[in-house]
């Protein structure tokens, strides 16, 4: 393991040599997802590299998670149906944001839907059918870790769908989402945007650490190679599906900590919620019963290593 530098590879003779870092290609104008730098009101909260400091992040994330816990009670008490879609390139930070957002909430109220590849049967269904069964009921918030937008992004980039299927998706998706909104579902869509250089840095970091290498899939490598085509896919997706009933919100995520806080803060701002958390309850006293337990030594305990 070489956490302090680029990964090593073995030559045919068995010796190790440092793998050469590939030169970053020059992207066509507009192909990168780098967002314009925003003015930071408090520069002391950021590192010299411009990233949010860990101490600031930990304080803010605890505060926002507390508010998200209050929001879940409001969603439940008001019978709201909330759908939050997380999309973006590989390594853009969608999974980390979802994990952070749900860390202090109840999985019975705030649940995550991360669908695997469709089965042979699902491939013959109406495209939106397998997603529809995971939509929220009253009092639920569902977070989609990728969604039906696989069709206009990953599937189109990797040629997993036909041009006709892609065109039909772009035609029907806005109408499908308008139907969801008319049915009473609140639809929130986040696109996590990461630059080519930052995506490459994250992939290289995963590649350098064996315990993280499982995160680097063949799909990630192919998507990285087709970064420009993914830019085309994103732009086309936004052109057709950035509708007023369910607009896209872009989350610049080269700074993962800031991205998580910005996403959580924005989600909270969309709801005029109140604190309806349950009141403190009085714990009952143990009820005495005429019962004698079997000897504890008859049970099998795990070894007390710690």
TrEMBL record:
Q: In its keyword annotation, does this UniProt entry include Transcription regulation?
A: no
GO molecular function ontology, one term from the record: polyphosphate kinase activity
Q: What is its EC number?
A: 2.7.4.-
InterPro entries from the UniProt entry: P-loop_NTPase, Polyphosphate_phosphotransfera, PPK2-related, PPK2_PA0141
Enumerate the Gene Ontology biological process terms.
Answer: phosphorus metabolic process
Main EC class the enzyme belongs to = transferase
For the keyword Kinase, the answer is: yes
Q: Outline the extent of the Polyphosphate kinase-2-related domain.
A: 52-276
Per its UniProt record, what Gene3D superfamilies does this chain match? P-loop containing nucleotide triphosphate hydrolases (3.40.50.300)
User: Which segments carry the region annotation Disordered?
Assistant: 1-46
Q: Keywords in UniProt for this one?
A: Kinase, Transferase
Its quaternary organisation is:
Homotetramer.
Q: Which family does it belong to?
A: Belongs to the polyphosphate kinase 2 (PPK2) family. Class I subfamily.
NCBIfam families per the record? PPK2_P_aer
Q: Which PANTHER family match?
A: ADP-POLYPHOSPHATE PHOSPHOTRANSFERASE (PTHR34383:SF1), POLYPHOSPHATE:AMP PHOSPHOTRANSFERASE-RELATED (PTHR34383)
Q: What does this protein do?
A: Uses inorganic polyphosphate (polyP) as a donor to convert GDP to GTP or ADP to ATP.
Q: What is the protein's name according to its record? A: ADP/GDP-polyphosphate phosphotransferase
Provenance organism: Nocardioides mesophilus
């Amino acid at each position: 393991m070489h956490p302090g530098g680029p990964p090593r590879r073995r030559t045919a003779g068995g010796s190790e040599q440092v793998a050469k870092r590939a030169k970053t290609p020059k992207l066509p104008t507009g192909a990168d997802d780098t967002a314009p730098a925003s003015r930071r009101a408090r520069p002391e909260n950021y590192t010299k590299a411009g990233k949010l400091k860990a101490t600031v992040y930990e304080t803010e994330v605890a505060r926002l998670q507390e508010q998200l816990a209050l929001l879940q009670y409001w969603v439940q008490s008001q019978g709201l149906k909330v759908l939050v879609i997380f999309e973006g390139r590989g390594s853009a930070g969608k999974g980390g944001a979802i994990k952070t957002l749900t860390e202090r909430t109840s999985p019975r109220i705030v649940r995550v839907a991360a669908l695997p590849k469709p089965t042979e049967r699902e491939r013959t269904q109406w495209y939106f059918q397998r997603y529809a069964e995971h939509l929220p009921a009253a009092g639920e918030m569902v977070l989609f870790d990728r969604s039906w937008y696989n069709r206009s992004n990953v599937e189109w980039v990797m040629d997993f769908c036909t041009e006709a299927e892609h065109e039909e998706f772009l035609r029907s998706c806005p109408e499908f989402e308008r139907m969801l909104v008319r049915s009473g579902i609140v639809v929130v869509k986040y696109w996590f945007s990461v630059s080519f250089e930052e995506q490459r840095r994250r992939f290289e970091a995963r590649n350098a650490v064996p315990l993280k290498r499982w995160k680097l899939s063949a799909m990630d490598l192919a998507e990285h190679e087709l970064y420009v085509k993914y830019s085309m896919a994103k732009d086309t997706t936004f052109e057709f599906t950035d509708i007023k009933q369910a607009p896209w919100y872009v989350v610049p995520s080269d700074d993962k900590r800031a991205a998580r806080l910005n996403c959580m803060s924005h989600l909270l701002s969309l709801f005029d919620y109140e604190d309806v958390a349950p009141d403190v309850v009085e714990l009952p006293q143990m009820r005495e019963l005429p019962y004698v337990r079997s000897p504890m030594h008859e049970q099998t305990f795990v070894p007390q290593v710690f």
